[in-house]
Amino acid sequence: MMKKRMQKALPYIVLSLIGIMFFVPLLWMIFASFDANATLAIEWPEEFTLDNYTELFSDPEIWIAFAIGVFLSLGSSLVIVIVSALAAYPLSRFHIKHKDSIILTILFMSGLPMTAIMVPVYQLFVFFNLNDSLWATLFFMAASALPYGIWLMKNFIDSVPINLEESAWIDGASTLVGLRKVVTPLMKPGIFTVLIFTFTNSWGNFFVPFILIQSVEKLPASVTIFQFFGQHGMVFYGQLAAFSFVYTIPVIIMYFMGQKYMSQGFSLGGATKG
């Protein structure tokens, strides 16, 4: 009996330990953001203050950095959703020669480490005079995440019955019309999954903007966080914690926006009736 109880309790113990590991940094971030003399220790603020947030929001460069971060992350995510849907649709619906090889190649490309390709990418940007360009950086961030987006999107399109599109084709709808009016409404959970996944990765991407953007005024929030690390090892922990707390808000908003659609699942049972 004791062995069975331990086996049942073991997953909950492991999950609780993982939850604590994530909760402890979050607890420090909350306490330190309201502490005038914040340190690395997790402690209740002796002097509760909003000065860290006041200094943060009064800096126009911070607002610009957040706006640039939203532009890069949301823009690249929308590009990925649109292009991956158009690329995944023929892989899901059509009988293409060497389709399995194409899919495996796409999956292989999604596993390429960014550090291995940044040197030739940077040389390419310099050759075409695209370095320090936000638009070029946006499209590269979209292209680097596109293979995994195509892989995910194909699996979601596979879940939509093709007989629904065939009914639309009989009524005179084209392939693109069927994709837009039949497939897309039924795969909203998949679209929001790809959108949230790619937005989260782009929002937290430090390496790519740091390499491809040289102007300080064009750096997104994921890079400007280093301004809170001063010289000679000095760190402004209170402002860093406040910045980190605000930095999580766009991702939380994305999850709340997509939760309604993601929790619905694929309600295709009623769509195939009749």
Describe this structure in words.
The structure is a single chain. By secondary structure, this protein is mainly α. It has two domains: 1-33; 66-262, MetI-like (MetI-like fold). It has 13 helices and no strands. The chain has helices at 2-33, 51-57, 60-93, 99-109, 114-127, 134-158, 162-170, 175-186, 188-203, 207-212, 221-224, 237-247, 249-262. Helix 1 (2-33) crosses helix 12, helix 2 crosses helix 12 (237-247) and helix 4 crosses helix 6. 27% of the residues are buried.
The CATH architecture of the largest domain can be named as Orthogonal Bundle
Overall tally of domains: 2
Please tally the helical runs, counting DSSP H or I stretches of 4 or more residues: 13
Q: Which overall shape is indicated by the principal axes computed on the Cα atoms?
A: globular
Q: Say what the CATH topology of the largest domain is.
A: MetI-like fold
CATH superfamily of the largest domain: MetI-like
Cα(first) to Cα(last) distance is: 53 Å
Give the averaged pLDDT, no decimals.
83
What letter string, H or E per element, gives the SSE order?
Answer: HHHHHHHHHHHHH
Under CATH at level 1, the class of the largest domain stands as Mainly Alpha
**Fraction of residues in H or I helices:** over 70%
Total strands: the figure is 0
Q: Sheet bearing the most strands, described? A: none
Structural class: mainly alpha
